[in-house]
Batch of 2 targets.
Target 1
Amino acid sequence: VTGFDVIIIGAGIAGSSLAAELSGSHRVCLLEAEDQPGYHSTGRSNALWHETYGGPLIQPLTAASRGWLDQPPLAYSETSFLNARPTLCIGQEEDAAAMDAFMARFQGTGVALSRLGADGVRAMIPGVRPEWTMGILESASADIDVAAYHAACLKMLRRSGGQVMTSSRVIGLSREEKSWTVRTEKAELRAPIIVNAAGGWADDIAVMAGVAPLSITPLRRTIAQIRVSAVVPQDMPMVTHIHGEFYFKPDGGGRLWVSPHDEHPTPACDAAPEELDIAIAVDRLEHVMDWAVQAVETSWAGLRSFAPDRLPVVGFDATSDGFFWCAGQGGFGIQTAPALSKICAALIARRPTDPNVAHIDPRLYAPRRLRA
Ligand SMILES: Cc1cc2nc3c(=O)[nH]c(=O)nc-3n(C[C@H](O)[C@H](O)[C@H](O)COP(=O)(O)OP(=O)(O)OC[C@H]3O[C@@H](n4cnc5c(N)ncnc54)[C@H](O)[C@@H]3O)c2cc1C
């Protein structure tokens, strides 16, 4: 039996970023069921840093992560993980009230938003149909190099002496005295603290540990990579819809990533796209753009896992010693990982929080709130 200070279950961005944060001060073991860390949600995202995404209670986490992603510590990377990609939320004439409400929702949060009229929308999205006359521009948003960020966290962990064990699905958890025993198909490990960073499987891990689950539900979302009749400008913004029916952004080589913004509850699984969702994505795009879709080159789906109130779940479970939740990152898990990993590391190490996140009250995200 090998002993550690902390065993983290799940090597997506949540588990990996936390492992890297803890690795300087703790003996950390990161366990991943698949042979590739990042095989599930982390490798299937839209790879965007988008400050208004998730609402005003997620925004502080997103905002606190930006500086780190833009200028990571040198030990992680010598280059930024971000590339500018403004986001433009669009609507039609009848959406004026919804556009006003969007602006009002973020008033006082510090998010830089500006309104655009029909000309402004057309200037940013050549080929947009004339009925899309309203826009809200977030110029600070950016593409995230998710693969580089994720790899940098794993590199940090290994460099500090931490272990990453892939093809190591956790199949048993038990607590005796002051220690958890974690069984995988290959090994038996021990640590006083275990972290549940299992994404869509977070509730399953809780049940395995004898901890009551928190109704963290995986929702499937689809992205199709398509080729269109026009040349897609590489500097086009990410385009979202005021009522959340679609989004699209350019990918390299004149292609587009398009999502129908679907949310299908599903058991945790290796999510796959359905033909109908791809067809809806194409149809919605053709209602926005005067472009013909020539081919769907590839498509994928991933799980976005939410607690009932759609806030992340981070903190020790009050009902079980040494069981720490790092779950429910929904559709914002990459863009909030720098902040969330620092908050989690401080709670686990019982040390003061990093100054960049000291203004965020972690009790807002504590599992206790879901146990009423
Ligand atoms: C289509 C789509 C678009 C998205 N777009 C964005 C975006 O633009 N920006 C953004 O910030 N976020 C986005 N997200 C959300 C983001 O991808 C997730 O919030 C994030 O990846 C969650 O990370 P995670 O580590 O919790 O989950 P995962 O990456 O799923 O990692 C959990 C890991 O736990 C492992 N695991 C499960 N059970 C066990 C077990 N028993 N033993 C060992 N390991 C186990 C799994 O194999 C998995 O690798 C998007 C998601 C989707 C699906």
Target 2
Amino acid sequence: MNVKLVYRLPTIEEYNLLRRSVEWPEFDVELVKRALSNTLFSVIAEVDEGVAVGMGRVIGDNAIYFHIQDVIVRSDCQGTGVGALLMKELLAYVDRHSGKNTNIGLMCSKGREPFYLHFGFVERPTEKFGSGMIKVVSD
Ligand SMILES: CC(C)(COP(=O)(O)OP(=O)(O)OC[C@H]1O[C@@H](n2cnc3c(N)ncnc32)[C@H](O)[C@@H]1OP(=O)(O)O)[C@@H](O)C(=O)NCCC(=O)NCCS
């Protein structure tokens, strides 16, 4: 598979298509539009003249707190190194904009922890950190 990394936002359609391919819920178009426009950095893995098979983006305050979000590789392209290529680009972006004690967070899908361990992330809780918490708005 010939994969090309492109530094751009996904289109709304690409975003929802990639989410659907990994059975993640889709969001309303207006929400996606606003979310994507507030992205700090986005990278897309393309094959066959621009077909997006993977994406990842960085959100946050661009200095102290960064969050890795929407790391997705289309299911039929998983396990071929695309996810790792995307992560390297996301972390390189953070590296260029971070300082001492900068914090890179992510919400890991269940079972995907080993993927992120490759890139220096640690599983919470640790001796110092609690579990981390989340609240999903239902309507
Ligand atoms: C998680 C995901 C992004 C990984 O992408 P990928 O292209 O399949 O991963 P890669 O082929 O680049 O794998 C990189 C390394 O991570 C490992 N890895 C990838 N997924 C893994 C998993 N679920 N469990 C354990 N190890 C995993 C690979 O074995 C590989 O290790 P190696 O370098 O020692 O061989 C992809 O499976 C995906 O999109 N999943 C659905 C969406 C998702 O859960 N995204 C993560 C959000 S938290």
